[in-house]
Amino acid sequence: MVTIIVHCPRCQSDRVYRHGKTPAGHVRYRCPASPHIFQLTYTYEARKPGVKDKIVEMAFNGSGVRDTARVLNIGINTVLRTPKKLTPRQVTSQQVVLDDVALICELDEQWSFVGNKSNRHWLWYAFDTKRKRVVAYTFGPRTDATCRQLLALLSPFQIGFITSDDWGSYAREVPAEKHLAGKIFTQRIERNNLTLRTRLKRLARKTICFSRSVLLHEKVIGAFIEMYHFN
Description:
Blueprint: E1 17-21, E2 27-31, E3 36-39, H1 51-59, H2 65-72, H3 76-84, E4 103-114, E5 116-128, E6 133-140, H4 144-153, E7 159-164, H5 168-173, E8 179-181, H6 187-199, H7 214-230
């Protein structure tokens, strides 16, 4: 006879007891310490612990919605609902300056599709050249107003210089005494653009796997930036 000790997935306590069965016949357990009711087996794969984390992780590694649904053996609607619950922040909360050393940021914008290939959606962000991390980002059209939104997100930081390409919005909105323009000054952020397009399928240009909704598009990209740059 084999005895299996059941631990609560929330608090890891072994003081659990049986709490009836589900309509599908699976045994339920109750933990009085949490309190928490859980199962060890599920009929639907998406209910298993860790599946929702795998959905997000696959989105961060170049998998589309249907790719994820096939691999995890779950429904497409489950894959779509999971990233919608993410709440990424637009600005890092980390200390990004050392003592009196001013921050040097590279600014750039990159486009992708939302809905159809005639509807471009732009990601604008600032890249810390010293620590090779994104400092802040925003979404919007390729206009001066979106450039001002990004600069407003950078206002809490001590900025020494801002470098960018020759796009006119930067010349008009960034103070001339802090601005350096030219492709030679944006090599690091251009390299990060390649990383974003490689890791996130939604940012690939030559593909049919672009986002169908602005909300899902922005949350997946924002959550990726928060996980790999802000944390």
